[in-house]
TrEMBL record:
Name of protein: 3-methyl-2-oxobutanoate hydroxymethyltransferase
Annotated positions binding 3-methyl-2-oxobutanoate: 43-44, 82, 111
GO CC annotation, single: cytoplasm
This protein's UniProt keywords: Cytoplasm, Magnesium, Metal-binding, Pantothenate biosynthesis, Transferase
Annotated GO biological process: pantothenate biosynthetic process
Organism, as annotated: Campylobacter hyointestinalis subsp. hyointestinalis
Subunit structure as annotated in this protein's UniProt entry: Homodecamer; pentamer of dimers.
Length: 264
């Protein structure tokens, strides 16, 4: 079981699709590790597991807590950790927070939302030896400011800006790019314009890889379903059926039967 490195991901570009999924704890990271090339400790955790309606609100400390658990469960996948909202308001603060995440979690890269406006931060991180994944297109950390999660790059001007962001982030030293919520043609154009691997979520089928939030993909998160989410499992109903069976058996005294009891 060889650990996946950034060189492996570069070698996969144009040859083999890269599979990425989120995880927030060791239990699920361990389950995903044999199948996914990359695992993301995303700040989507604030929505899928903390029950909030946005990704804003997590601290660096909380991201580190979850990422350490994921690193414990995942031995093979390339691990990326999200830098939470508000953690990069200056270059100095960004370096401090990102290096802390990198050192304490053992992740392979930190992921930062933002385009050309953060190229100075990306350059400083890269020069200090920190792996960086850029995140452009729909940026969930801006959902409050922008009034929701909106597909980006539908008009020519914004599409040009997103393509320019991709190129500037690559030049600044980003080793990977996450493309979220953009038209498929733009996803393809960016992927063909940069040498670094692109991972898409709602960015069409031509990106170098795909990522999904696991609780979306496996049907546990029921608040809403973005167009790009395919549910590979009816997770929430499986759990409802299981808890119903458990509750019924406790109430009818069917459980615990003798096989689950200790003898003297
Ligand atoms: O936080 C997250 O899970 C993300 C998704 C877009 C994959 O960044």
């Amino acid at each position: 079981m060889k650990k996946i490195t950034i060189s492996d991901l570069f070698a996969m570009k144009n040859k083999q699709k890269i599979v990425m999924i989120t995880a927030y704890d060791a239990l699920f990271a361990k389950l995903f590790d044999d199948y996914a090339d990359m695992i993301l400790v995303g700040d989507s955790l604030n929505m899928s597991f903390n029950g909030k309606n946005e990704t804003i609100g997590l601290s660096v400390k909380e991201m580190i807590y979850h990422a350490k658990a994921v690193r414990t469960g995942s031995k093979r996948a390339f691990l990326v950790v999200d830098v939470p909202f508000g953690a990069i308001y200056s270059k100095k603060v960004a370096l401090k927070n990102c290096i802390e995440i990198y050192k304490k979690t053992g992740c392979d890269a930190v992921k930062i939302e933002g385009g050309s406006e953060i190229k100075g931060i990306v350059k400083a991180l890269s020069q200090n030896g920190v792996g960086v994944m850029g995140h452009i297109g729909l940026k969930p950390q801006l959902s409050r400011k922008e009034g929701g999660f909106k597909v980006a790059g539908r008009d020519e001007e914004t599409a040009k800006k997103i393509l320019a962001d991709a190129i500037e982030l690559e030049l600044a030293g980003a080793g990977l790019l996450l493309l979220e919520g953009i038209p498929s043609e733009l996803g393809k154009k960016i992927t063909n314009s940069v040498k670094i691997p692109t991972i898409g979520i709602g960015a069409g089928s031509d990106t170098d890889g795909q990522v999904l939030v696991w609780s979306d993909a496996f049907g546990f998160f029921e608040e809403f379903k973005p167009k790009f989410v395919k549910r590979f499992l009816d997770g929430a109903n499986l759990i409802r059926n299981a808890i119903q069976d458990y509750a019924d058996e406790v109430r009818t005294k069917k459980f615990p039967s003798s096989e689950y009891e200790y003898t003297k």
